Structure prediction request, 536 residues.
Amino acid sequence: MNILLVYPEMPTTYMTMEFALEFTGKKAVYPPLGLLTVAAMLPGGWNKRVVDTNVKPLTDEDIVWADYVFLSAMNVQVKSVREIIARCNALGAKIVAGGPLFTHEHETFPTVDHFVLNEAEITLPLFLNDLDLGRPKPLYATKEFADVRETPIPQWDLIDLNDYVFAIMQYSRGCPYMCEFCDVTALFGRKMRTKPPEQVTAELEALGDLNRFDLVLFADDNLIGNARDLKQNLLPALIDWRGKYKYPVNFATQLTITLADDPELMRLLRQAGFGSIFCGIESPEEETLTNIKKRQNTKRDLMANITRLHEEGFTLSAGFIVGFDEDTPEKHQRMMDFIQDSGIVFTMVNLLKAPPGTALYTKMREAGRLIEPFNFEENESNIIPMMDPELLHEGYARVIKMTYGPAQMYHRARIFLDSFAKRPRLKIGTQPKVQWRHIRATFLVLWKIGLTGTQRKEFWKFIGWSLRHHLRDLRSAMMFTILTYHFEKMYELYIANNQKRGRKFGAAFNTHGQGYGLISAKPATVEAPAMTDVAA
Ligand code: SF4
Prediction:
């Protein structure tokens, strides 16, 4: 049996770091963890081929070679998914599809032959069994959650790991929280399922030479969802493993701001090598956080928590959202001020979306406020806002302009480095060494940003300041210059997309004063309902 496993193209997003990739010499940010885990669950005697379309093109020869084409995708990959499905249909290839996109919306892909939905550890064996008997069904789904202790190590030998900046793995699934706009609990449940330490370290070692990666990303939705297991089992084992094997690689992950409440957990995470963390802050407004059920972010001093995490030695990235029902222009201004004061350099601001499968999706559908079909693009929404849509998009344009401007990003980088310098000196095992790829990246930064970039003035001011005040953290400072470049390019893309859509707002960073926040001339695609209609 010939099996072709295809990973669809990721669109350009803040997270895919497309513009930062220019400095790395790599082809993509991280490998397709889910698809390679599925590959490891297929019978050993089958011929398997993987095409990650973010790394190399999918050819007709690949498709014709396959008895089955396996597709795994997240919501953001929908455009590429539809193109791949059309090509497979044209060439008569049979398609087996799984992953979050299909789990939520399989009925919108009528030409897929078999859906293997939810967690593949449960549904894939059912499909394989029926295939063996010669009668595979069109759909396999389950309400059960898999035992991740049974999950095999991804079949890394099917790809070239040297193509990727980061390595990737997973320790847990699920999240105990119920944020209204998030589909994690619908997909993976509220009860945390974790792997034992031996399984995690075996997965790390299966990745081979870890020196070739800048980071290993723990692709958990909330790493600290079961803090007790983490403190008692995984983190002590990882600390031990780092010491024993002298692996210098550092780890990155996603977690909640509640980390700032737990000094022991912060210390253990740092000692185990976790330095880069992502938190959903969403909004500085208590009322908004309560309404969207982001309760773990309420009744706390968010700014003090952020500073604490920086001072403990974490580099925090964060997500913010514009477009909540309570939004006003004043709240947009407060969000901008909060972001600027926070010192969080990598800040993603998005428009509120209601992904299928979430409580927010149901709420919006019941209120008649959904725009179909769902547009997964960043900077777009599928919700009819309470605020005038033009005013909302104008406010959003202002927030991202004031967040992604080079001067604003370097301002936050200074706040961060001042806090980060206060971190305790912990014994963290061997630290990553400077390698040839880092020297190459430094030269590229100097050329592309320092000598020929539009933001070179801010760049040299920031680098000069870092050399004077934070020589020890110059590597972090250089990384921030790459992030600033990436976000500048993302903002240019945002303006270009606005122009394509006929919106006038958005202006280049170098036009200050009145240059941004112009009202769009584009008529709203959907009429906003009267407030009384919504309330009903
Ligand atoms: S804490 Fe994060 S993963 Fe958990 S429900 Fe909220 S947004 Fe989703």
The first helix runs from residue 33 to 41. The pocket of iron/sulfur cluster is lined by residues 175, 177-179, 182, 184-185, 221-222, 256, 280 (CB under 6 Å).
